[in-house]
Design brief:
511 residues, alpha+beta, two-stranded antiparallel sheet, 7 strands
């Protein structure tokens, strides 16, 4: 059964790496293959030493046939011991790098450029455990062997503890629901593989080098063949590990596919907008036609006014038509203006609550009687253009309210929630309307796409919001359940002034 996990880890990690070749997936690939190398070495070692029960043979080798083939392999014990050492000493640094790349703790982020230093203790251990060095320097020196065992155990458990802390802390500090769900199975996958590794990392590869002597046992060494867990326990434990590995890799695949899809969507939406901008002449032509219609109405009004007894009802009708056309033109010009002005942003430090307050004020100018529940920490600092960001959030509030009204429901709950996600400040606009269907979600950010009346809406609102968020180096996420409601998340990087600069300014003022 252990072979199933190893094969799945190998195949899945390679597939993930080729789906998205970045640092994170490279470290994950290194972590998985070091795990595989160590366990393959242990399995071959156990096949050669023998002394296993039928249940253990079934668990490890699916029977005796594979064990026999492995036991007759021409694999020198020195090479086998170093193979186990290689996997044992490389798993912790790759695991720690995976955790460091997931972590958003500012101190950890500042140390990322020096993350290569985590390979120093493994490199030292691998140098000493290299067969030529080991048998020349360590063989027969019990005190030195004891020191090596304790030294390697100390840094291995230190790395494991640090990695587990960073992973669990990252999950604990995530407050946005879809981010937390996405990271949950990734965390369980990493923890389950780490637990499986920790069961065997207690044993030292020295026992393989000294298979025919009792030197290893003289300083309380533990053998791979000894196990405190029953075979049923191993089956159950391995089944849970396999389950979490599958769920974790599925979440990682979904995460990779989402990022890849977002990049493709950016290109697709940009192409659509470029194509749409080529149709600017069509837009101008439409405005020109409306102006010509206005000219006709003006002539009719003038003609009516030249009569001795003008028809007031007809004049009123002409005036209403003229006003409606003018309002329509102004709305369309405003949408075009928004899409153009998003290219000019001035980012300055401000509190997140200021943008949220501006958004609610603009909303209440249009819908005075609709309350907006504003919650979360408003004191957090961001670098933003308050007017543009406020208008983007206002746009989302308008969409949320109109979505609820069109749903025909009663008891509206419109919320603007501020989330603190360490490196990001999240603005969540939440409604309890009809929700958005999957097909519509795929097109909702497209320029000039709208499910509303095209007389007063040209579908540039969400495209405008997306461009504003990108201009703030932020991200947008959408979560919607048909029939229950929708949440739009706007993630803006947090701004923290450098404390060193503040201290220097303080010293300079005092001086």
């Amino acid at each position: 059964m252990l072979f199933i996990i190893l094969l799945f880890l190998a195949a899945s990690s390679v597939i993930l790496f080729f789906l998205r070749r970045d640092r994170q997936n490279f470290f994950l690939l290194g972590m998985c293959f070091s795990f595989i190398i160590m366990f393959v070495g242990i399995i071959i070692y156990l096949a050669k030493t023998g002394g296993l029960s039928p249940e253990q043979k079934l668990f490890l080798f699916f029977g005796t046939r594979l064990q026999r083939r492995l036991s007759y392999m021409l694999f020198p014990l020195r090479s086998l011991g170093y193979m186990i050492a290689l996997g044992r000493f490389l798993f912790p640094p790759f695991l720690l790098l995976v955790a460091v790349n997931y972590s958003m703790i500012p101190l950890v982020l500042r140390m990322k450029p020096h993350s290569w230093a985590v390979f120093l203790p493994p490199a030292a251990s691998l140098t000493v455990y290299y067969p030529a060095c080991f048998f020349r320097l360590v063989k027969g020196r019990f005190a030195l062997q004891t020191f090596l065992m304790k030294f390697s155990s100390c840094w291995i458990y230190g790395y494991l503890a640090a990695a587990v802390f960073l992973i669990v802390y990252e999950y604990y500090c995530t407050t946005i629901p879809h981010c937390k769900r996405q990271f949950r199975y990734i965390m369980l996958f990493i923890l389950s593989v780490t637990i499986q590794y920790s069961v065997y990392c207690i044993q030292d590869p020295i026992q393989v080098y000294q298979i025919y002597s009792l030197e290893y046992m003289r300083f309380s060494g533990k053998l791979y063949t000894n196990s405190t867990m029953s075979i049923k326990g191993w089956y159950l434990f391995t089944a849970f590990t396999l389950l979490f590995v599958v769920l974790g890799f599925w979440s990682l695949r979904s995460y990779t596919q989402i990022d890849r899809r977002e990049s493709i969507d950016d290109i697709r939406i940009q192409r659509k907008f470029d194509t749409a901008s080529m149709g600017a002449t069509v837009f101008i032509h439409g405005i020109k036609n409306q102006l010509l219609s206005n000219r006709v109405l003006c002539k009719k009004i003038r003609r009516e006014l030249t009569l001795e007894k003008p028809d007031l009802q007809r004049l009123t009708e002409y005036a209403c038509m003229l006003n409606e056309m003018n309002e329509s033109m102004l709305d369309r010009m405003e949408e075009l203006y928004k899409s153009i002005k998003s290219n000019s942003l001035t980012l300055v430090p401000l509190q997140a609550g200021e943008a949220a307050k501006l958004a609610t004020e603009l909303f209440h100018k249009k819908y005075k009687d609709t309350p907006v529940e504003l919650s979360g920490n408003r004191q957090e600092s961001i670098l933003a253009d308050c007017r543009h960001l406020g208008e983007a959030l206002y746009n989302l509030l308008i969409n949320a309210h109109e979505a609820f009204v069109s749903s025909g429901k009663t008891g509206e709950r419109l919320k603007l929630i501020l989330h603190s996600e360490r490196l990001y400040i999240g603005f969540e606009v939440q409604d309890n309307g009809a929700g958005i269907e999957e097909k519509e979600r795929q097109r909702i950010f497209d320029p000039f796409y709208t499910s509303k009346s095209t007389t007063h809406n040209w579908g540039m609102g969400l495209y405008y919001v997306r461009e504003i968020v990108k201009g703030h180096f932020g991200k947008m996420k959408l979560e919607s359940t048909p029939g229950k409601g929708t949440s739009f998340f706007v993630m803006i990087p947090r701004y923290e002034p450098r404390k060193e600069l503040r201290f220097k300014e303080f010293k300079w003022k005092r001086g």
